[in-house]
Design goal:
The protein is mainly β. The chain is built from no helices and twelve strands.
Length: 138
């Protein structure tokens, strides 16, 4: 129902994408039925929807193995969700302003977040703990 603020494609199978909105929802969309390259507008049906945050979702990233998605929000949190059922794995709390970018490590079990508080944080996926905080964009 709100403006779409973030999208991310699956990395491995490339058969779904996720979207995040100003209505605070995270949606998973199936791409299996989409074929061809015509320019007609297609109405998709979300295969999973979750009320993910208390404010707008600014950023999304899908893990390299397609098993997780991370959402970053104006509510100063990032959340890690399991796929395809979109169940909460961890909530990453510690930024003082909204989160504008999230990204999974391609090799380690961690997530990067970048915030309006001028910091970048590395988080452990296993328990949601902050491993490091970096400053430098002051």
């Amino acid at each position: 129902m709100g403006a779409v603020g973030a999208v991310a494609f699956s990395k491995k199978e490339r058969n779904f994408f996720v979207s995040g909105s100003s209505d605070r929802t995270l949606k998973v969309w199936n791409m299996d039925a989409v074929s061809g390259n015509n320019e007609e507008i297609i109405t998709l049906k979300a295969k999973a929807v979750v009320a993910a945050h208390d404010k707008d979702i600014n950023s999304l990233a899908v893990a390299p193995n397609d098993s997780l998605v991370c959402s970053g929000s104006q509510d100063r949190t990032a959340c890690i969700w399991s796929l395809p059922d979109v169940v909460s794995v961890a909530t990453l709390e510690g930024h003082k302003r909204g989160i504008w970018s999230v990204e999974f490590s391609p090799v380690d079990h961690c997530v990067l977040t970048a915030s309006g508080d001028q910091t970048i944080k590395i988080w452990a996926i296993s328990d949601g703990s902050c491993l490091r905080t970096f400053q430098g964009h002051i």
